[in-house]
Amino acid sequence: MTTSIAKAPAKALPVPTGETQPFWDGCRNHELRIQQCSACGHYQFYPRLYCTACMSEQVEWVRASGRGTVLSFTVVYRPVTKAFAEEVPYVVALVTLEEGPQLMSNIIECDPEQVAIGMPVESVFEDWSEDIAVLKFRPVLA
Amino acid sequence: MESLRGKVAIVGAADTEVGVVPQLSATQLYVNAAKRALEDAGITKDEVDGLITCNSFVEPYMYHAEMIAEYMQIFPRYCLNVATGGGTTLAILHHAAAAIASGMCHTVLITMADNMLSGLSRDRAIEAMSTAGHAQFERPYGPPIPAFYALIAQAHMHAYGTTGEQLAAVAVACRRHASMNPAAQMRDPITVDDVVNSRMIASPLHLLDCSLVSDGGAALILTSAERARDFPHPPVYMLGVGEGHSHEHISQARDLTTSAAKEAGERAYAMAGLGPKDIDVAELYDCFTPVVVIELEDLGFCPKGEGGRFVEDGRIELGGELPVNTHGGLMSHCHPGHPGSMFSVTEAVFQLRGICGPRQVKDANIAFVHAQGGIMSTHCSMILGKEVG
Description:
Number of domains of chain B: 2
Strand order of the largest sheet of chain B: 3-2-4-7-1-8-11-10-9
Strand content of chain A: 35-45%
Shape of chain B: globular
Number of strands of chain A: 8
Order of helices and strands of chain B: EHEHEHEHHHHEEEEHEHHHHEE
CATH topology of the largest domain in chain B: Peroxisomal Thiolase, Chain A, domain 1
Strand order of the largest sheet of chain A: 6-5-4-7-8
Distance between the termini of chain B: 20 Å
Oligomer: heterodimer
CATH architecture of chain A: Beta Barrel
Radius of gyration of chain A: 15 Å
Number of helices of chain A: 1
Shape of chain A: globular
């Protein structure tokens, strides 16, 4: 479920905040963490101080299954900056996690043309530095 | 909630030169637009007691509206700088109407401009393109701005069978209208084949599914309906206005194929006491072709999922069922960033005045204007008419 890709791209490293640090700590250990409300059971991402369903402060970090489906995607042919140039064409997607929350990611380890809406995917982590690993997804092999 | 219906009118409207305008700075474009709108309204700057702007990306000021007031030596009692991305124009009109109706001020000057084409250094142009999206949860994935909208387009195609050719019909219609507008930046007609054969940027969006990068500005003068009859041009009344706001980041959107344009439109129709069938001309935000398709659905011009079929066969072109973006839109008239929708409003005013020459919609009495900002995030709809009644 995890793999390490030894690449040192000249991309801007995400800067964790106090609120998001537990997520990034999880990523560093190649583990996808999201928040769950202890009061109502609601799962949420990105991390927040309160539960968006019931406004409870009792939001806890839990390990997500890492499984999800492609909600939508695009194959990018014109990179946003030079740092992404060698990856063209690359897939930017929205993924709906099994637990409910949706997030943006890349779908990797596949032919971009084979990505489809509804495709099952699983989490995979790319190590960008000693502290930062970036959450990505790859197709679940049938 | 007391209705703003018919309480406020646009009595001055003007565009600067648009497209490639290297001879004017961003601030100069704001002031040039303002001067033209004051002249159109036949008033002096001393009669302005409310001033609203949006900040310039190229030449920002911490207190931008105050900066423009200072530059022009206007001393307003109401001064506001608004920012809701591409939706800013109509949000500003909404604020201006509320300020006039509540007596905070009598005569509002709205001026918006930028020179995204000529005014940016290479580094700042890259910054403009690469700083969209959530810094931790979107930008690491490398989405250029078209990719955000491509996610919406792909979802719409999957759900409703919308085709690339249908999206292209939006660009074709805008270009046809621009070909009849001497002010437009891009005037050579294009075909559906031209669009779908242009370079793929972020699938399913091709280069010609994307709007322009431009310089330009526009300004409006608003006042109360009671005072509006004392100006050189017939007033254009604000009959309905409504907003809808659903998210900031597309990855947090509650729905990819139905936007908060639905709430914005419903609120505007309810205030105006009008419906989609009453609209003679529509100026809809068109930063990318799929946006128009989704707006047509969410604003009730066709059922959800029918937008792709609706834009085919010249239905949104002049002479069609609902002429859309008669000036050429962001696709072909100009797109200087946040001010983009100002040109939708000035065009609606010019259509209702009946002065648009070859691109005039016959018997245009009611115009619909819609703007959105962010990535389908913040929406404002406005219905304008020649008569209050």
